[in-house]
Amino acid sequence: MLEEKPAKSIDLFLGFCYMNGYTRWAFKVMPSWSIHILSLALCLSSGFQQGYIAAVLNQPYKQIEKYIKDSYHERTGLELDENVKNIIWSALNISFPIATIVGQFAASVLCKRFGRKRTALFSSFLYIPGGLISVAAKYCHPYYELLFVGRFIWSFANGINGVVATVWIVECAPPQIRGRMAAMQEMFMSIGSVVTQAIGVPASTDDLWPLVFVPGMVVAALSMVMFAFVYESPQFIIEKTGDRDRARHALAAYHGVEVDDPSLEEEMRVCEQAVQKKNNKKSPKKGQLIEEEHDGLTIMLKPWKANDPTSKVIRHAAWVGLLVKVVYVFTGARCLRGYSTFLLHDLSHWSTNGALYGSFFVGLARVPVTLIPVFLVDRLGRRPLLLSSTLICALSLLTMMLSIFAGEEFKVGTLVGLSALLLLSACGIGSISRFYAAELVPRSLLLNATSYLTMFEALTKIAVEFAFYPVANVAGAWSLMLFLAPTTLFLIPMWAMCQETSKKHVNEVLNEIAVRKNLKVSFTS
Questions:
Q1: What's the CA gap between 370 and 426, in Å, rounded?
Q2: CA–CA separation, 126 vs 224, rounded Å?
Q3: How confident is the model at residue 4 (pLDDT cuts 50, 70, 90)?
Q4: Which among 135, 178, 134, 171 is positioned nearest to 152, based on CA atoms?
Q5: C-beta of residue 213 within 8 angstroms of C-beta of residue 134
C-alpha cells in the first residue's frame, strides 16, 4: 500500500481570477500521488490492453491468415475456402468482445467478493498466460486454435479490468478531476494500439509475427506492481468491513487532503448510503439517498415492474449511458482501427507497405490527440464533445465511402477520412463513452450497472465486427453503411437526451433528469 501523508500529496495553489470586475482567490485542486498511480495502473491494465488486443491482429493479418491456411491444409490435405477463411478470421476477431462479455459478468462477482484491488491483480495476471498461449500457437503448428484460446483468456481479463477501471476511478477520484482521470483510458488505448503497430510493422513476416504478443505481457506485469501500492476502494472497504476510519483514510489519500477535511463528508455519505441502500432494499427509510426497491437489472429491463418515479429516472439515465456506448461502436472507430490495414490495402488499393505505414502513423497521431479530452472534458463538458465528435465521425465515414467509390486515384481521401474518424472520435465520444454511463447511475447500482451496460456494448461490437469483414470483402465501400447510417440516425436522440455531467455529483444529474421528465422525485445527499 502506498503510504503518504494526505496533506502533502496535494497542493492548493492560489491564482487570481477576475469575475464581475472583482479580483478573487481561485483554488485549484491538484491530483494526489495516490490517484495518479491508481489512474496509471488502471490505464495500463484496461485501456492499454484493450487498444493492444484490438489492434494486435491488424499489422500481420496476411501472415496469420497464411499460417491458418497452411495449418488447415496440413491437417486435412485440402485448401481452405476463401469464404471459410474470412469467417474464421472474423471469428478470431470477435472472440475479443465475446470473452469481454464473460469477463464483465465475472467482474461484478469478483469485485463484490474480493474487492477492486485483488480483482485487478488477478485479471492483470491472466494477460500473461493469454499472451504465452498466443505465442505458442506458431510453434505448435498446425494447431492454430491456440490463437483463439490465448485471445479469449487475454480478452476475458480485459473485460474484468474494463469494469474495475470504470468503477474504481469513479469511486475514488474527486468530482473536479474525475472526467480527466477517466479520459486517460482512451489515451492509453491509443498508446496500446501504437505499440502493437510499431511491433507489428517489422514483425509482419512468417517467422516473426508471434512477437506482437510479447509487449502486452510486459505491461501486465508492470500494472500488477503498481496495483500492489494503491489503496482499496473506500466503497468496498465500507461494504466489506464497515471500517469507516480506514475508508476515510483511503479517500483522503485519493483526494489529496487531510483525513479530517470536511470536503470528504459528501463522498463518505454517498459510500455509506449506498451500503444502507443495499441493506434496506425491501424497507427503504425516509431520507435515504436512493429509495427504489429494485435491483439494477429489474430497473433497466423490467419497466412494467419497476415503474415508480425513482426507477423511471434511473432507467432513463442508464439507457442514455448505453446509447452513448452503442453510438461509439457504430461510429466504426473501434472496428476500423482493427481493420485499418485491410481498409487501406484491400478496399482503397494502397500498396502493402503504404497500408502498413499509413495505419501505423494514424495510430501514432492518435496518442497526442487523445490528450485533448484529458484537458477539455472537465472544462468544455461532456455534451459538446459528444455531439461534435459524433457528427465528425459521420462526415468522415461518408468521405471514406465516396473516396473508395471514386477509385484508386482518390485513395488519399480514404486515408484522410480514416484519420479524421480515428483521431477526432478519440477527442470526444471515444473517451467519454468509457465513463459517461457511470456518472449517470447511483453509487449503490454502479458496479452492476457498469457490468450490464458494458455487456450490451460488447454484444453490439460482436454483431458489427463479425459482419464487417465478410461484408466488406463482398460489398466493398457499401460496407461502410453499417456505420454511417446508424451514426447519422443516433445524432438525434443524443441531442435530445444526453445530460451534462461535468463536475456534478450523480444526485444532481438525476434531479435534472427528473425535472426534464416532470417526475416528482428528489435524489438528496
A1: 6
A2: 11
A3: very low
A4: 134
A5: yes
Mean pLDDT along residues 492-500: 92
The three cell numbers of residue 150 are 490465448
Q: If you search the block for the grid coordinates 471514406, which residue do you land on?
A: 400
Quote the crossing angle between the two packed helices 352-369 and 411-427, to the nearest 10°. 20
Query: How far, in Å, CA of 171 to CA of 16, rounded?
Result: 31
Residue 448 to residue 22: CA distance in whole angstroms: 47
Nearest to 367 by CA among 431, 319, 301, 444: 431
pLDDT at residue 106, rounded to an integer: 92
**DSSP track, 79-101:** PPPHHHHHHHHHHHHHHHHHHHH
CA 213 – CA 49 distance, rounded (Å): 11
Cell readout for 321 is 449511458
24 vs 289, which has greater pLDDT?
A: 289
CA 432 to chain centre: 9
Given a contact cutoff of 8 angstroms between Cβ atoms, the answer to whether 165 and 47 are in contact is: yes
Number of Cβ atoms within 10 Å of the Cβ of 30: 12
Per residue in 250-263, pLDDT tens? 988 888 888 888 87
Residue among 377, 463, 358 at smallest CA distance from 426: 377
Catalogue the long-range contacts made by 472-477 (C-beta closer than 8 Å, 24 or more residues apart): 472/339, 472/342, 472/343, 472/346, 472/347, 473/86, 473/346, 476/347, 476/404, 477/347, 477/400, 477/401, 477/404, 477/405
Neighbouring CB atoms inside 10 A of 121's CB total: 18
Phi-psi region of 523 (alpha: psi -120 to 50; beta: other; left: phi over 0): beta
The grid coordinates of residue 24 equal: 478573487
Sign of CA dihedral 362, 365, 369, 374: positive
| Nearest residue to 254 (alpha-carbon basis) of 236, 230, 218 | 230
Rounded to whole angstroms, the Cα distance separating 418 from 276 reads 49
Distance CA 386, CA 457 (A): 17
End-to-end CA, the chain: 31
* Number of Cβ within a 10 Å radius of residue 228: 12
Please report which residue ranges of 302-370 form alpha helices under DSSP H: 309-330, 333-338, 340-342, 352-369
CB–CB of 450/167 below 8 Å? yes
Strand 12-19 relative to strand 22-29: parallel, antiparallel, unpaired? antiparallel
Residue 25 backbone phi and psi in degrees, to 5: -80, 135
User: What is the grid cell recorded at 103?
Assistant: 469477463
HSE-CB for 404 with a 13 A CA cutoff: 24
The pLDDT tens digits for 472-486 are 988 989 999 999 999
Longest C-alpha distance within the chain, in Å?
84
